[in-house]
Amino acid sequence: MSFLTxxxxxxxxxxxxxxxxxLIQRERKHVVEFPSLMFLRRIPYQSVRRRHVRxxxxxxxxxxxxxxxxxxxxxxxxxxxDIAAAASGGAREVxxxxxxxYSMAYGDRWARSVDAARNAVTSLGPSDRASIVxxxxxxxxxxxxTGDRDRLMAALATGKAGAGATxxxxxxxxxxxxxxxxxxxxxxxxxxxxxxxxxxQGADGVRLPDGAIVTPVSVGGGDTANVAITPVSLQRSAxxxxxxxxxxxxxxxxxGQPVTGLDVTLEVGGRAQQTQRIKVDANGSASVTxxxxxxxxxxxxxxxxxxxxxxxxxxxxxFVVAPKRPLKLIIAERGGGAGSSLYLSRAMSxxxxxxxxxxxxxxxxLSTDDLATTAVVVLNDVPVSTPLADRLARFVERGGxxxxxxxxxxxxxxxxxxxxxxxGTAVDRTRGSAARLGALEYGHSVFEPxxxxxxxxxxxxRFYGYRAVTxxxxxxxxxxxxxxxxxxLERRVGHGRVLMWTSSFDVQWNxxxxxxxxxxxxxxxxxxxxxxxxxxxxxxVGDVFEAAHPGEPRxxxxxxxxxxxxxxxxxxxxxxxxxxxxxxxEIRPQGRETEAPLTVASNVDLAESDLTPxxxxxxxxxxxxxxxxxxxxxxxxxxxxxxxxxxxxIWWNLLFAGLILLGAETVLANxxxxxG
Amino acid sequence: MIGTSAIPGARFVDPRVLARxxxxxxxxxSVVDGFINGLHRSPYFGASVDFAEHRGYVPxxxxxxxxxxxxxxxxxxxxxxxxxxxNANFAVLLDVSKxxxxxxxxxxKLDYARMLAGCLTYLVHRQRDRVGLVAFDSDIVEHVPPxxxxxxxxxxxxxxxxxxxxxxxxxxxxxxxxxxxxxxILVLISDLYDEPxxxxxxxxxLRFRGNxxxxxxxxxxxxxxxxxxxxxxxxxxxxxxxxxxxPEALGDQYREMIQAHIAALQERFxxxxxxxxxxxxxxxxxxxxxxxxxxxERLGRVx
Lengths: 676, 303
Hints:
The complex is a heterodimer of chains A (676) and B (303). Chain A has 676 residues and is α/β, with parallel strands linked by helices. Chain B has helices at 15-18, 24-38, 68-74, 109-126, 151-160, 170-179, 196-208, 221-225, 247-271, 285-302, and strands at 2-3, 12-13, 53-56, 78-81, 89-95, 130-136, 140-147, 184-190, 212-219, 232-236, 242-245, 275-280. In chain B, helix 4 (109-126) runs antiparallel to helix 5, helix 4 packs across helix 10 and helix 7 runs parallel beside helix 9. The chains are: A alpha/beta (676), B alpha/beta (303). Chain A binds chain B through residues 26-43, 45, 47-49, 51-52, 54, 676, and chain B through 99-100, 102, 109, 191, 193, 220, 223, 228-239, 241-246, 248-250, 253-254, 257-258, 261. Strand 2 (31-34) of chain A pairs parallel with strand 10 of chain B, so a sheet runs across the interface.
């Protein structure tokens, strides 16, 4: 046993106090007049004095109470080795939490953290159990609750620094769950990390079971100089009918020394294309823009790279550039009524994300072939015959989008039920005040961009005429006029969607086409009909990639990870791929190995490249609910005397026992007094 | 407080109650009268009938003793001799040393001794004996010669006595022995804080002169039972010396020693034909009186 403040042991001299009280103070308390000391004088004084202690239990109680209190102030604790030896104190459940974010690859941090974990395993007593948990963005149990040291060591050997970012929350939650399930009396978590400030995002409800101890072992500190590539920006442009992409990359220097002559290289398709040399100030950043290149093929891989430094993972940034393919849209209009689609066709031809290839056709001339190659059909106020309606119904069920604009001439056969509503009579609002759009479903993806204030004013458009409709049961009304009549309705049919606009898109019945909201409105409507979703040029490690669009038929897929591992995406469960490596993932449908793959670029979280450390006690305080938890020596991983003392809290028990003894002493003393 | 006792009819009165009666004569009378009335059989009080004879005057006789009425009838001088002369002299030898000032039960030993002396004096006076008093500490403090008329004086002196000096037995008692020419009954009331042999040595001369000696050994209950509890410094009332004492530790030893002392005194007095009675200040006065009377009766019979 050792003492944190051994000077307090001098207080043991206070043990003489009760003895003095017993031997000296009591007889000096008062003077009794006695007729004659003739007899008393004959009794030897020495023997009298020796027998002054009347109540030995009382004296011993007082001495014990004082000794316990003095010992409590001296803050005793057992060394870790002592604890292991004295297994009678209760077996421990130890969770070794080992940070394997990519910042642990900096210098010798990973080796030191593994050493610290081995120390924790070595210190286990015979009846102790331990779990190994690796964590980065998420946490993973490598070995759960075992006392077998060999297996624990083997589990430690399987770990290596990954590409994830540090997140303490999931690791501590996992540790809390294992600890709460444990039946062992003493619970401890050893958190081995470089304790980056960016990894801690507040307590987030992390709380270990009561009595659990968190021992942080920091392997960070020291030099934190690091240069990292920031996410690039891609600027697309058209040149001679070809799409060109200009890449602008940023370089950030997190060290205290400027970096000069740093080569920044752009690789396209795996080949270095351009290199630029830049200088980055201390704790500063610089950007470099490369000359545009033309992406070829379905997914062109690009990488911006700088020379390797102490932390390798953030020295390259990967992205995928795919040429944008235009969306095919057919506007069916009445023959000879070219003006009616003017505003719509012009508006759609300006679309950028995605670009739209607009073609105008007479309503009845829409063939099956036309429908097979197009994504969206707009019926701009045309009467539809039954055969055409059937063709359109099949088109929609396959996943096509149909926008039905019901001006004064639109008609739809009642036999084909795919419209959200059956158009009825025209409502004339030329007399009195014109109708305006009243209620809009801003939660819907069509109107979602207009949700914020000053993001588009639909109420400025005036409507002089629209068609009264009979709404189908499964249709949804997205917009209404001020009198409550539906203006825009939606219905899902098969894999496709049908939108119905109950007024016109020319300036006959309304002036919406002249308003600023018209353009984004029709773009959103068409985008919604095609369920278009732009794939981001890169993802971050820890993200989940969804291989199939919602609604698409599921097929078996095979993914090739950057490390060369083949993963079969489960076609039974979620068709998703967890990105936990840095680089390019290739995804192909099963059995079609020769087909050009879908490529996904995965990059490390740039926040992790900031190696600024935090105070480990902040994590400990949040996890245990009190700030005074154990801290650890950064190098050896052995907890300090103070940390051990705080963790064991023997003083509290001693103080409590001392107070109990004092209480017992009071009771006993009263009893003796009464009896005397 | 009125209690009962094994002595039939005796009305024993708590000394603490009696101590509140300021008038010693009233106290003595109430105690003695009650005591006598309660006795079934009066003990022998001694010669109580005045028996006078006349003899012719011879020069040298005290002219105060001339019977002038007989002279008036006979014209001769006769001396009147009283039978009273054969009555005993009674004197109380009262120890008023400082140790007698101790009292633990509301009454000091001296108070008790004072009451006891008063009662005895009153009782004896009723028997026509002559009463006297000697108060002493290390020397004689007060002296009232025995006389049939000195009852009031004795009570008055008793009332005034206060313990002021350390005491001893030998010197004053020897002095008393020299002074008392006539035999009589001497009642020694003291706490007898001296070695038994020294006490006998002090009392011896009195005894040798033919006095009947009755010793009342007055002790406070605390002195006998040593009922002290807390460890304290004990101060000698006479010398002022202090010693630390833990009563629990030496109580038993002390009690053994005081009992041994009492036993030794009893033995020594018995061997010297001296009546010895141990009186605790907590016991009623009647008890002491009864003790005296039974002794007196026995003495009378013997004579």
